[in-house]
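User: Hello! I'm new to structural biology and keep hearing that structure can be predicted from sequence alone. Could you demonstrate with Integral membrane protein? Please show me the input and the output so I can see what each looks like.

Assistant: Of course. The first part below is the input, the amino acid sequence of Integral membrane protein. The second part is the output, the predicted structure written as tokens.
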Amino acid sequence: MEILRLLLVFLHFIGLAVLIGAFVAQVSGRPKGGGFTVTSGMLHGALTQLVTGLALVGIREGALDLPVDNVKIGVKLLVLIAILALVLVGRRKSLATGGFMAIGLLSVLNVGIAVFWT
Ligand code: HEM
């Protein structure tokens, strides 16, 4: 089971890289005067974080009896739901620049919560 947890942590990091990588690619690769596009990488990265994050909570509490900080995880989940809501709106219609930037800022915020909330 420990190997499964490590595999999920691995995928959790890949999802994080895809989400923030797709965001940065838009910000740095935007043609002059062009708008920002919410790409499928952002959607898939965010969904990967949701699925692997929930599975990590399950395996830590259920199979491995490792502690889980429910308040921290609850805050991370809320932040991710906000990211997903923005991404889904942005995939259907265009997002204002503020909404698009919020996707990147909230993603970085979740990295900060994961690392500094001890
Ligand atoms: C954008 C969204 C997210 C980002 C950027 C993110 C980032 C991270 C990072 C960097 C770590 C490693 C930190 C460490 O081990 O010290 C981590 C661990 C973890 N995350 Fe997330 N996370 C996100 C969403 C979620 C969600 C939605 C959940 C659960 C509902 C979740 C549950 C967990 C758990 C349980 C761990 C501990 C894994 C372990 O070491 O066993 N994460 N996350």
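User: So the tokens describe the shape?

Assistant: Right, they're a compact way of writing down the 3D structure. Reading them back into a model, for example: The pocket of protoporphyrin IX containing FE is lined by residues 5, 9, 12, 16, 19, 49-50, 53-54, 56-57, 60, 68, 73, 76-77, 80, 83, 107, 110-111, 114-115 (CB under 6 Å).
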